Amino acid sequence: METVKSYRDLKVWQRAMDLAVAAYELTRGFPRDEQFGLTSQIRRATVSTAANIAEGYGRSTKGAYLSFLRIAQGSLKEVETHLILATRVSVCTETATKPLLEETDELGRMLRALIVRLEQHVDR
After folding, report:
1. How many angstroms separate the CA atoms of 4 and 37, rounded?
2. Residue 89's domain is classified under what CATH number?
């Protein structure tokens, strides 16, 4: 198992960053009138996911870290909701959102596993 020296070493953070990049790429194709709507919301929620993982890692207590990881989980659900809505209102296709939704599912599992591991870890 690799030693984690920084939040940047966390696979879940790396994948969250990849999701944010994919969201920016997807939303570049959204209509101009969505610039302050779905485009902004999807981008902000994906960035929030990665940022909360990083911010939680930087906190001094395990409880604070767990809290930020749970906020990241909430942001992921927000991303999913916005992506589903984008397809339902024909801003983009299901084909375009499918890879991002698959990634949100995987990230959600990774976050849950990290939370469970931290909850089970006994402080010395």
Report:
1. 37
2. 1.20.1440.60
